[in-house]
């Protein structure tokens, strides 16, 4: 019997490999004669290097060399090492000059025969500097006196205006103006950034922990000034990325440079401390929100002004205002984004860039409005429900947010909540209940997949995307099996290698929509070939049967009306010379983006319990309900959602990269002092999906689920904290001293 395939909660096909330690990550690979690189980082925040003293290091056993400004190979494509419109092309530190732009910037690499020798050698490199005062980072709520310098260069961050904000505000009976601030946050994937680079003549191979093998291939070949085909990037398994492995950062170029310099394969694994600054982080933000409303809750005006920071030498702006433009039907709306420059590593996309901090501000201020006019927060949101996208002025391809509110409220028991702050308690604990909307746009990028039906009836799929821990291997296998009427066991998927047809970077929750569409279309194309082979073949039981009458099921092609009339792929191919059938398809967006607003939606409900005397905050319950198109695998999808919601707990209560404004140095660059939740921090948590059939959004019918989990979670918790304590905390993270 054919299994039900799409939606089935099947186990990860790579699960066994992972839990038994047989899955090989980039740093697990080995090459004969491999040597080890360890980075030396700057200890000033701004200035230049006067000199290196490497005498002691070079005397150490096993040390081959110290690569730094002076002996580092010249980078041919360095002129391309400039701020780009492509957010993944970051300006790198490649030891081409002696400038120091931030504290903890890579300035040299010690290369030795063992990792230990390299670590020891790196500790003995002495550097003298000419130091200047670093420009301090955005103080995120602790002190907001600064002048934003400039407009971001990116299209989605231009100022926007709908209607007339002033007029809208003058027509309001209640006006709420508040500023929300979020700190610098640092992605901390379990697997650190790591790679092994080796040269074979002109050809470079890299095992590299990345969210995008083809992006790395493109960038590195450009910088070396060599043909793309000469660079091979492999990432079979990746232990999380969260945006941090989406760009090609300095170390990815430094390792092959070092391999060239010493003529040996070089392995470079970043220390945890090195991951705070040189591989991106989420910028701190200051967000001013204004909402005008009538007595009945109808918004007359809404504005969202964001300031974030970028580095002194490159540009990235946190697009926090983009959701506020379209989430509610306010006729008058304005948004702005501004940047300051600081001597820090360049910020980057971190899980739901823009949406996560931006919706914290938006859904917090909406909660404040609900209290100001004494209205239920869900009723207020329904009152301002956007039936069409008011920013793009387009219909939604599908939007089931109403159902998300309603089902979420029911599951959570929202009706039991008494709205008055501090009105619910148990013993010493104040209980708070809060809710928020969640949303994430549907992204899609050009992707190619190849599907091959082999003479033994098994199917091989090849695509140059990668599984960053999200379950891509599993769901792509399911997609191909579904189209071809096979069991997932009969399908093998190969990914994570630039040898396979080019596919998307795994970022912006886009892999399943992009690669999933390519796999769908390639599988449909190869199925069509098989059908043609059958109905044109006099010897086939399907000879002369109309193509539309033929379906694929259980490894067979058969007629819709009579499953017995048909044959297996095996017999079909055997009769036709035992040659495989294959199809390669490039899948890209048609015009759906011009005609529809494409988004996944959700609701988050959170309950907190706060020890009144100690201020200790626990998130005791969290329920997320999402509508994200077709759900391909109930198990991996739920894992994605729960991971995002836990990230929300992390962002709401814990994460805070502390940068000393005097030196630009991170004060807590380790997982002991940079807090993220552990199992004991997470109590009852669950995630649900609402069935949503959306045939417009893309051929796979899916919306991304990698980031939407975090988006509303932060404000749901913040709103619950207010409900529990009567204290509105507008500066993340919400730590115990703030509620006392
Ligand atoms: Mo993600 S922050 O879109 O890699």
UniProtKB/TrEMBL annotation:
Annotated Aldehyde oxidase/xanthine dehydrogenase a/b hammerhead domain residues: 20-133
Q: Which UniProt keywords apply?
A: Molybdenum, Oxidoreductase
Q: Where is the composition biased (Low complexity)?
A: 503-516
Q: Where is this region: Disordered?
A: 129-151, 494-516
Alphabetical list of SUPFAM superfamilies matching this protein: CO dehydrogenase molybdoprotein N-domain-like (SSF54665), Molybdenum cofactor-binding domain (SSF56003)
Superkingdom of the source species: Bacteria
Looking up SMART domains in the UniProt record yields:
Ald_Xan_dh_C
Q: Does the keyword Oxidoreductase apply?
A: yes
Full protein name: Xanthine dehydrogenase YagR molybdenum-binding subunit
């Amino acid at each position: 019997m054919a299994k039900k395939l799409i939606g089935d909660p099947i186990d990860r096909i790579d699960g066994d490999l992972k839990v038994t330690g047989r899955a090989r990550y980039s740093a697990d690979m080995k090459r004969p004669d491999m040597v080890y690189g360890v980075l030396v980082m700057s200890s000033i925040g701004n200035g230049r290097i006067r000199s290196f003293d490497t005498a002691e290091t070079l005397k150490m056993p096993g040390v081959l060399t110290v690569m730094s400004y002076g002996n580092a190979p010249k980078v041919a494509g360095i002129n391309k090492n400039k701020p780009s419109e492509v957010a993944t092309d970051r300006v790198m530190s490649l030891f081409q000059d002696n400038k120091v732009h931030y504290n903890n910037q890579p300035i040299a690499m010690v290369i030795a025969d063992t990792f230990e020798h390299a670590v020891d050698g790196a500790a003995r490199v002495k550097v003298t500097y000419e130091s200047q005062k670093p420009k301090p980072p955005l103080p995120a709520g602790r002190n907001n006196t600064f002048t934003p310098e400039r407009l971001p260069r990116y299209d989605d961050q231009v100022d926007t205006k709908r209607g007339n904000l002033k007029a809208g505000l003058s027509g309001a009976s209640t006006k709420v103006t508040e500023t929300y601030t979020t700190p610098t946050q640092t992605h901390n994937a379990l697997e650190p950034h790591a790679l092994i680079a080796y040269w074979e003549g002109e050809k470079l191979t890299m095992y590299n922990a990345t969210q995008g093998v083809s992006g790395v291939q493109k960038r590195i070949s450009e910088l070396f000034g060599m043909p793309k085909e000469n660079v091979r990037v492999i990432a079979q398994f990746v232990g999380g990325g969260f945006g941090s492995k989406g760009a090609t950062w300095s170390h990815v170029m430094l390792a092959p440079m070092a391999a060239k310099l010493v003529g040996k394969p070089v392995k470079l694994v970043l220390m945890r401390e090195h991951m705070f600054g040189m591989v991106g982080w989420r910028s701190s933000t200051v967000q001013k929100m204004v909402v005008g409303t009538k007595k009945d809750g109808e918004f007359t005006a809404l504005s969202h002004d964001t300031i974030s920071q970028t580095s002194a030498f490159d540009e990235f702006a946190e697009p926090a205002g983009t959701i506020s433009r379209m989430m509610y039907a306010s006729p008058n709306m304005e948004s702005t984004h501004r940047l300051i420059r600081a001597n820090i590593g360049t910020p980057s996309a971190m899980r739901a860039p823009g949406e996560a901090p931006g919706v914290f501000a938006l859904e917090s201020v909406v909660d404040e409005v609900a209290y100001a006019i004494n209205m239920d927060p869900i009723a207020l949101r329904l009152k301002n429900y956007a039936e069409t996208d008011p920013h793009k002025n387009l219909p939604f391809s599908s939007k089931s947010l109403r159902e998300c509110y309603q089902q979420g409220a029911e599951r959570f028991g929202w009706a039991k909540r008494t709205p008055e702050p501090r009105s619910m308690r148990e013993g010493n604990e104040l209980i708070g209940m809060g809710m928020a909307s969640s949303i994430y746009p549907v992204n899609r990028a050009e992707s190619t997949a190849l599907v091959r039906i082999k003479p033994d009836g098994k199917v091989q799929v090849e695509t140059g995307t990668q599984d960053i821990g999200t379950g891509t291997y599993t769901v792509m296998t399911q997609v191909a099996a579904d189209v071809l009427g096979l069991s997932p066991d009969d399908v093998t998927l190969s990914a994570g290698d630039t040898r396979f047809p080019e596919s998307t970077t795994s970022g912006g929750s886009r892999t399943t929509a992009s690669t999933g569409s390519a796999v769908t279309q390639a599988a449909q194309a190869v199925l069509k070939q098989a059908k043609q082979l059958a109905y044109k073949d006099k010897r086939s039981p399907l000879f002369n049967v109309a193509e539309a009458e033929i379906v694929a099921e259980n490894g067979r092609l058969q007629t819709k009306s009579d499953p017995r009339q048909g044959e297996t792929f095996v017999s079909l191919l055997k009769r036709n010379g035992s040659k495989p059938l294959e199809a390669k398809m490039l899948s890209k967006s048609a015009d759906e983006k011009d005609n529809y607003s494409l988004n996944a939606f959700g609701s988050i409900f959170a309950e907190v319990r706060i020890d009144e005397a100690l201020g200790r905050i626990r998130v005791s319950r969290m329920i997320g309900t999402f509508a994200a198109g077709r759900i391909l695998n109930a198990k991996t999808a739920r894992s994605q959602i729960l991971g995002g919601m836990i990230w929300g707990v992390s962002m709401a209560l814990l994460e805070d990269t502390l940068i000393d404004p005097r030196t630009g140095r991170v004060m807590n660059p380790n997982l002991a002092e940079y807090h993220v939740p552990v199992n004991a921090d997470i109590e009852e948590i669950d995630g649900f999906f609402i069935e949503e059939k959306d045939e417009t959004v893309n051929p796979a019918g899916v919306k991304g689920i990698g980031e939407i989990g975090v988006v509303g979670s932060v404000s749901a918790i913040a709103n619950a904290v207010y409900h529990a304590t009567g204290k509105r905390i507008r500066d993340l993270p919400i730590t115990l001293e703030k509620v006392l």
